[in-house]
Design brief:
Helix content is 48%, strand content 16%. It is built from 3 helices and 3 strands; from the N terminus they run βααββα. A 3-stranded antiparallel β-sheet has the order 1-3-2. The longest helix is centred in the last third of the chain and has 16 residues. It starts with 12 loop residues before the first strand and ends with a helix. 12% of the residues are buried.
Length: 69
């Protein structure tokens, strides 16, 4: 399979609340709430929640900058 969008970093996709939770260092329940409440950047793949590591890292950096201001 060839990816049409060349700005996707290989291994960048986190699929499932458990994977997102591990990346963020929160519980699976907290990760699911953050996605359903649209607090963090995420999407649905079929019926499964997913997010890009790069988008979450950017979101965290922006949140830190807002908190420091």
């Amino acid at each position: 399979m060839q990816i049409a969008n060349d700005n996707i970093i290989e291994g960048d996709l986190l699929v499932g609340a458990k994977a997102i939770a591990r990346f963020l260092g929160v519980t699976q329940r907290q990760a699911y709430r953050l996605t359903t409440d649209r607090i963090i950047p995420s999407m649905k793949l079929g019926g499964t929640v997913a997010a890009r590591r790069s988008s979450l890292a950017r979101w965290m950096s922006e949140a830190e900058a807002r908190a420091a201001a």
